[in-house]
Amino acid sequence: MSRLFEQYKSQVVPRLLEELKIRNRHAAPRIEKIVVSMGLGKSREEPKRLDAALQDLAVITGQKPALRRAREAVAGFKIQKGNIVGCLVTLRGARMYEFLDRMISIVLPRIRDFRGLPTKSFDGEGSYSFGISEQVVFPEINADKMEFVQGMNINIVVRAREKAHSQRLLECMGVPFQREK
């Protein structure tokens, strides 16, 4: 079992039940999945970029990424229907908690001038999304062997009744948010 999952079961759930006045343990907010994606718009001109991004994402997440293709042509971006435009990995269960634990304790503190994640990035359902501008902040990536700097999007899908419940869950799990001014 993951250290973060054990913390969730033993400390976070009881705290949330008390703070949010929830009676049923199964109604407590919980993380359902984490989706890590990379946009590969420049891979058409540089095919090596696609291979590098797939390899980096696989090393970071521990899963093989799935390719995403364009559903329709966009002339302004020179994208034709069927072109590869991105890749993603959906993490669930133990891998999800391991990834989130590494994200909180290792990756976010390594970001230059990091002052916390913005609280405005929650959607209407309570899921939280943020981006990382370069994959070098992950300890699995060797900066000396890296050819291309590639950013990524991370979406934490939370099952909760309200946005405030989602935010409180992530705060209790240790996600560093910016302080309100």
Provide a short characterization of the protein structure:
The protein has 181 residues and is of the alpha+beta class. Helices cover 33% and strands 19% of the residues. The protein has four helices and five strands.
Overall pLDDT metric: 87
Strand tally, please? 5
**Number of continuous helical runs:** 4
- Summing up helix and strand content along with how strands pair, one would put the structural category as alpha+beta
- Describe the largest sheet: 5 strands, antiparallel
Q: What is the fold named in CATH at topology level? A: 50s Ribosomal Protein L5, Chain: A
Span between termini: 38 Å
Low-confidence stretches: none
Gyration radius, rounded? 18 Å
Helix content: 25-40%
Strand content range: 15-25%
Net shape: globular
CATH class, named Alpha Beta
CATH homologous superfamily (4th level) name: Ribosomal protein L5
Which architecture would the CATH scheme give at its second level?
2-Layer Sandwich
Strand order of the largest sheet: 2-3-1-5-4
Tell me the count of domains. Answer: 1
**What are the secondary-structure elements, in order, as H or E?**
HEHEEHEEH
